[in-house]
Amino acid sequence: MGKRSSLYLHPQQRDQIHHLASGFLWRSELPTWIVIITLYSGWFATLAYWKTLGLLPATLLLIGFTTWYMSLQHELIHGHPTRFAWLNALFGTLPLAVWYPYGLYRDSHLAHHRHDSLTIPVDDPESYYFTEESWARFSPWHKRVIHARNTFCGRLLLAPLLDILQTLASAVTAFRHLHLRAMAMWLVHASLLAALFAWMMHNGFSPVWFVLAVSYPALALTKVRSFYEHRAADNPLARSVINEAGLFWRVLFLNLNYHSVHHDLPGVPWYGLKSVYLQNRAAYQKRNHGFLVRGYSEWMRQFWRRAVNVTAHPGRRHEGSHE
What we know:
323 residues, mainly alpha, 2 strands
């Protein structure tokens, strides 16, 4: 349950959650096993029978399964469905989403969960902010690209491309500087990806189509979830959003819309986040200083073409940045 990194509202909540953790559902992790079985069987069956389904229905199904897979990878990182990290990693290592090795995502994301450094450039590898010094050095066109990325439309269309370029640049850096651990992850990733693409071609499905029409849109959908997920605030507890999203998005993102709750209690499984939030709804909204949105459509309406002010971090002035 990650006791040392958990931030309970009060001792009674800690006892409630420990009681839930001792019950059959949480001990068995049955909902996560159902997701794993459904996801893998659905992904591979869709590709195997895409001619019967038709290209468009198969493509839409694959986008959904691939997006869901990235949500599953996040759940695996946080110690589910087994207590063995190596076994959980096996369920997330296949490159169904194409772009990055699971191990690199795992290491980066766990660093992102360092409570006090959340949103801080350099310290938080998932921060969209920059230091004031680095922001001041950017050229006007670079700033325009960043502002475009910080619109809802830009997160869907542009942000995946920027992430892909950054990920490929990190691979080049790993091999150039002989970072053996990262090199090993990339070599395993590339080998598995080559095997998947070969199987796709055996089934008459174009890997190029998969990359452009499935993987890129799936990555774009994950940007819906992460849009304005964190903000700069003096209190780390006020930096993560609560998004009261609808059922479709909650299932697709495995309840990560309750992001403030997840950062407080990273060991709580996905199927427990909603109930934990609803049991203490007012307290969580008070704790995160009212950083609340009632569905992703609200972000879309507010920021479709207007950029969120995620540029120079107001609390960090020294050198470094992360895009």
